[in-house]
Amino acid sequence: MQKLREILESYQGKREDIIPILQDIQGKYGYLPENALRELSKFTGVSESQIYGIATFYAQFRFTPKGKKHVMVCTGTACHVKGSDQIIDAIQRHLKIKEGDTTPDNEYSLEAVGCIGCCSLAPCAMINEKVISRIKPRQIKRLLPQKS
Ligand code: FES
Question: Where does the signal peptide begin and end (predicted)?
Fold first, then answer.
């Protein structure tokens, strides 16, 4: 938790520091670990439940670590019209996780995101930095192979 200590030391611990601290924690760890939120509560004097309340209000914060392959499905207007909901459903069924979650082996995580900038090729998704355009539900098993 050395990284966390360094983050907290750069703030005074005021209530208005909470969101920037949450952003820094997520920047360092890729998500908001439970024990980091506990330390943030001690540091600011704001209860853990209030901190959770603040963090859950903003879609940018995650409470589970990302998988090795982070799958982002665009749910922007063009992709939504072209069936991004079916893509998310197919991935959830295939990986047996819900949107926002990570598989137990940490291989995959799934996130619905806003426009990723390839609307003319909708529906689109990204697996880490790679864009998959005109994605179809029947491609999911091949795109996201699972260890047997
Ligand atoms: S709406 Fe999906 S890429 Fe723009």
Answer: none
For residue 118, the domain's CATH number is 3.40.30.10
Q: Is the dihedral of CA 86, 102, 147, 145 positive or negative?
A: positive
For 81-115, the pLDDT digits (tens) are 999 999 999 999 999 999 989 999 999 999 999 99
Nearest ligand 1 atom to the CA of 74 is: 2
- Residue 72: beta bridge partners? 111, 126
Burial zone of 49 (CB within 10 Å; 0-12 exposed, 13-18 middle, 19+ buried):
exposed
Which amino acids bring their CB within 6 angstroms of ligand 1? 74, 76-79, 115-119, 122, 124
Does an H or E element contain 14, and which?
none
Domain that holds residue 24: 2-57
